User: Fold these one by one.
Assistant:
Number 1:
Amino acid sequence: MSGILYIIGTPIGNMEDITLRQLRMLQELDFICAEDTRVTLKLLNRYEIKNQLVSFHEHSSQADAQRIIDRIIAGESCGVVTDAGMPCISDPGEVLVKLCAENNIEVRVVPGPSAVVSAAALSGLNTRRFTFEGFLPVPKKERSERLEALRNETGAMIFYEAPHKLKTTLSDLAGAFGGDRRISLCRELTKLHEEVLRLTLSEAVEYYSEHEPKGEYVLVLEGSSDTSSEEMTVEQALVLVRKLVDMGERPVDACKEVAKEHGFRKSDLYSAYCKE
C-alpha cells in the first residue's frame, strides 16, 4: 500500500506561527522534502524534531522527483515544505503533487500561514477578488506583455518582489497602471521589522527614491475601476466570467456576480458563456 504526500505549511517569518498538527506531522513522517534543507533544519532544531530531509528545489531533476514518488509508492509517507509559508503554490513542490495525481497517490494538506493571504488582509484595499501573480517576468518584453494583460483586471493583484528589484517594479507598475493607482507594500511579514505602507504608485516611487528597500515584499495593487457597465462589451464581461470560473466558481455564479457588478442580465451572460 502506497504512502501519502502531505503538503505542510510552515511559518513565513515568526517561528511561533506553527501548529500542533504541523509539529506532529514533521515528527511522524518517514521523510521530509525541503526547498532548502538548511532553512528547514533551523525550524526542526527549534522544536527538537529529528527527521530525514531530502532536498527538492527548482533545479531538481525529473529523476529526483521520481525517486521521491517511488519511495511513497513503496509505502513511505512524505511531507513537502517550502522555506516559508504554503508549499506547492508558485513553488517546486507542485511537481510532486502533479506526479502524485498521475500515480493515484493520496495527497493531504496541513495548512499554515500564507504571505499572499496575509498581505491581502493587511492591504486595506478591496480584496473580495484577487489574482496572485508571483514574481513578474524579468525580460522587458515578457514583463510588458504581462502587465498589458493585467491592464483591465478589476480584482486586486498580488506580486512578490525582492528588495533589489523593487524600484524598477514600482516604476513599471506606475507606467502600466498610472501613478494614482493605490498599492499596499507589505514588508517582512510576521518578522521583527514588519511594515505596511499604503500609498499610490507615484507616492511609492517617490518614497523609495529616498529610502532603500529592505527585506522581502508582497505588493497588493488595487484593481481597475475604469471599466463601466456602459463601456463594457459582452465579450469583455465574459473574460471576467472565465476568470472567476478558473478560480473555482460555478459558471452560473460567476455570471451572476459579473452581471451584478457591470449592469448585465445574468441570463444573457450565461447564455453567451454556454455558447462558447
Number 2:
Amino acid sequence: MKRVMLTVAYDGTNYHGWQLQPNVITIESVLNEKLSDLFHEEIRVIGASRTDTGVHALGNIAVFDTEARMPAEKISYALNQRLPEDIRIQNSREVPLEFHPRHQNSRKTYEYRILNREFPMPVYRLYSHFTYVPLDVERMQKAADYLVGKHDFKSFCSVNTVAETTVRTIYTIQVEKTNEMITIRVIGSGFLYNMVRIIAGTLMEVGRGNMEPEQITDILAALDRTKAGPTAPACGLTLVSYEYEDGIGY
C-alpha cells in the first residue's frame, strides 16, 4: 500500500465543486472514477480544499491509497490520458501513509479577479467577475490591510459554515490592477467556507465607496455575517497553490 499525492488543476465551470454530491458531477467524483478505472480497484481521493461550484484551481491537492505497482511519478501521465480536458494533474508523487492534506501546516494562496471596464469581455467571463462600476484600488488595499493577521473571521464566512473555530490567519492580501483586471491575492493558513469570496465582495463595496476602509475593524469585531459585503460570484476565484511546511505542494 502506498499513498500518492496529486496536484490538480481544473476549470470549475462545468462542475458542482470539488466534493462528492449525489446526482451531480464533481471534481472528486471524476478523479475517483478515472483512478478506479486505471488501477482496477476502488479509489477514493481526499482533497485539501473543497472548492465551490464554478471555482477554479491551479494547484489543489489530493491524496489516495493504492496497491498499484505503477511508480507514483508516472501516475500523472497515465491519469491525464483518461481525464477530461478541463482537469489535469500537474504532479504526482508518493508521500508518507500518515500524510493528510487538510491536517498539515500550510500556506494557501487564492486569487480573485475582477474585470473593471465599461463593457464585459467574453473571453474573461468564466475566469473573472465583471463590474462596470469604477473601483478604487487604493481604498481596497487600505481595507485589505486591516484583515492581515490572526482574527476571528466569523463575519467573513457563510452562516452555514461548520468549523471548530472561525479564527484564521491571513499572511498577506494584495490588491493590484493591471490594465482593466483587478486581482485580489490572499495568502493564509486556512480559509472558512466562502471566506475569500466574502472578502472580495466586501473590498468591492469599499472600492465603490459604499464602505470606508476603516469599517473593516468594526465588521471583524461584530462577528456577524450581515455586517460584511456580499459574497462575490464563484467564477472570479482561483485556488492558486498549497505549500506545506515540508515543501510538499505546487
Number 3:
Amino acid sequence: MFRKIGPGILVAAAFVGPGTITVCTLAGVQFGFALLWALLLSILTTMVLQEMAGRIGVLSQSGLVDVIKGMLRTKWIKNAIISIVLAAILLGNAAYEAGNIGGASLGLESIFGVQGQFPWYPLLIGFFAFIILWFGNYGTLEKVFVGLVSLMGFCFIVCACITRPSILEIAKGIFVPTLPQESVLTIVALVGTTVVPYNLFLHASLVKEKWHAPSDLSLVRWDTIFAVGLGGLVSAAILITAAASPVQSVSNAVDMAKGMEPLFGKTALYFMGIGLLLAGITSAITAPLAAAYVASSCFGWERDMKSFKFRMVWISILALGVVSLSFNVTPLQIIQFAQIANGILLPVMALLLLWLVNSKSVVGKHTNTPVQNWFGALIVGFTVFLGVKSILKVFALL
C-alpha cells in the first residue's frame, strides 16, 4: 500500500495546517457537529480538483502553469492569468507562512509549557524546514511526510476518541445538512482552508516526479482519494473534538486542549500540541515548495529542487515567515491582497482545469466522463460563490 502513496500525502499535509485546525476548532465549539456536512463537501471538492490536476500533470509531464501557457493563445488573457497565479501563490504563501510557523510554535509552547512569544521556536521550526528542503529530494519528502501526517492523524484521532462523542450526532452532522444562524462565514472558511489553490500547482508538479505513463493514472487517482480522505479525517477529528469537549470559548486548538485538561488530564494537551506542531511544520514546508514550483514555471526556470533560483524562492518565503513572526510583524495589507487574489484564482483554476481535462491535446483519450463534467460544473459554480464571498469579506474589513 505504501508504495502506492505519492504526492497526495503532501497535498493532505498542505491543507491540514494551523488555519484548518483553527477553523475546525471554532466550527465545532460554535456549532457542534452541525457543519460536518460542509467539511465532507469540501473534501469531495478537493478530491475532484486534485484528481484533475494530477491527471494533467502525469499525462502532460508538465506543471499546470506550463500547460496553461501552452493552451492559451490570447496574450493578454495568458498574462492576466499568470499574474493572478503569481500574486496569489507567491504573496499568499509568503503572507501565510508566518501562520504556519506560528501554529507549530503554539504546539511547542503547549508541549513544553513556555508561554507567549518565544523567538527561538520560530527559528527552530524554520531551521528544520530549511534542512528538509535543502537536503531533500522528492523521495525524501514523500517519506518524511508519510511519517509526519500519519503521526499527526493519530494524535488528532486520539483526541477525538478521548472526548467520547455521540456517534448518532456525528452521523446527523454528516448526512443531514443544516445551516445554523450566522454559520455561513464559517462554512466558507471551512471550505476555503481545504480547497487550496496552490495545492493544484503543487500536485501537478509532483506527480510527474513519481509517475510517467497513462497506465499510472489509477495509482494517481487512488493516491489522491486516499491522501485527501486522510486529511479530511484529520480535519473531522478536530471538529469532533471541539464539538464534544466541554469548552465554550476558544481562539485556537491549544485553548481547546487546555480547556479539556481538567477533565482528561495532560494527555489531551500533549496530543493536541503534537498534532498542531506537525500540522504547522508540514504546511511550513509545502507552502515554500509550491511557491518555488509556480515561480519556476511562470518564469521558465529549471524545476530542479537543487537549482539556485528554485532554492532562492523557497528560502525567501520561509525567511519572510520566520522574520515576520519573530519580530511580531503582521503584513495585513499583503494578507488582504492575497485573499483577494486567491478569491479570484480558485474559480479561474477550477474553470481552467475543467477545460484542460476535456482537451485531447492535453490528456489524449483520458478526458472527463459526462458525470465528471457534471460534478466539475457544480464545483466551478461553488468556487465562484466562495471566491465572491471571500473577496466581499476582505472589502468589509477595509
Number 4:
Amino acid sequence: MNFDDQPDRRGTYCAKWDFLEDFSGVSPKDGLGMWVADGDFQTAPNVIEAMRAYADHGIYGYGFDDAGYREALCWWMNHRHDWQIEPDWILTTQGLGHAIGMAIDTWTNIGDGVAFFTPVYHEFSLKTQRSERRPVELPMQLIDGKYELDFETASELLDPDVKILIFCAPQNPSGRVWTRDEMRQVVEFAARHDLLVISDEIHADITFAPAKHVPMDLAAPEHRDRIITITAASKAFNLPGLRTGQAIIADDTLRAAYKRRLTMTEYSPGVPGIVATKAAYSPEGETYINALNDYLEGNSKLFNEAINTIPGLHSMPLQSTFLAWVDFSGTGMGPDEITRRVREDAKIGASPGPTFGKGGESFHRFNLAMPRAQIIEATERMQKAFSDLQ
C-alpha cells in the first residue's frame, strides 16, 4: 500500500475538502484540510475489488446484513480484540452517529441528561442537543500530560435525570487507550448511578503498540445488562461515506429494545456498506490495517516532534487514532487568536478545542490521516504562523 499518494478528493462529495472553506474559511485551493476525521487514503485493495464487483453487477436491489457479514464481524472482533461475540448480538446502523442517536432515542426521554467525560468527540453533545436531551459534561483531569477519569467530581455533577453515559474508547480527541481496569471502573461507576453505557469503540483498530484496546463488554462482562458497544469499519478503512455501523449488544433485553427502535424508524442497511465491511474484516483487510497503523504512527511522531519545537505548544503523544491533540496554553493566547493563526496564517482547517467541551479551550485537533508530505507542510506552516514565539 502506498499511502504517500493522495487522489484529488475535491468535487467527489467530500466533506473534508469540498466543505473546508464553509467550515473554516480556509480555501481548499491553498489550504490543508485537517478537521473532519476521515483519511485521504484509498481503502484496502480487497474492499475496492468487492465494491467494484458489486457495482459491475448493475442491479442494486433491496438487501440485508447477511450471515457472511456477521461472521466477518465475529471473526474480526475475536482475532483482533480477543472478544468473542455472537452473530445475533449485531444490529446494523447507519454509521456511528446514527447508533448514538438511536441509543439516546431508545433509552431516554426529552429533557433527560446524557453524560460524557470531556473533552470528547463533539457529536456526543450535538446528538444530545438535537434530541432535545441535556448534555452533562464530566471534565477529566489532565495529569502529567495524560487524561485521567475523575469519578468523584463526576458523581457530584450527575442528577437522577441522567440516564446514559456515552464513553469514548479509544478516546477522541486525545488518542488515549484505556486499560482494562479503567474500562471496568467506568462500568462500575455507571452501575453505581444506574446508567446505561454507550461505548464508542470506533477507533479500536487504530492503535500503536504497546497499547491495546480492551472492549468494554470484555472488561466487565458481568455488567452486560447495561453495555451497548457501537463501532464501524469507517475510521480504520476510510468508509464513512457508506454510512454503515454496528451496535453490538449481548443483553437480550437491551438488544430487543434497540431493535424495536430501528424497526419503527424503517431502517435497514445499505448494501454497499455491508459489502465493504464484510470485505474489510478479513485477513486481507488486516494486512492493510497493519500497514496503515505503521504509517499513521510515523505521521504522528513526525508531527509531534515538529510541533513540540514551537514554544508554548505541546502535541499529546498518541496511543490510538490519527487525531493529534495540540495544547496551546503555553502561548498565553486565547481561543480566538489561536484559531485565527491556525486558519488565517497557517491556512489549516483544524478543529477548535472548545467544540470538544470543558477542558478543550486551549486546544486544537489536527487530522493526521494524510500523505506524509502534507504533514511536513502542515508543521512548517505552523512553525511560521507562530514564529514570533521562537
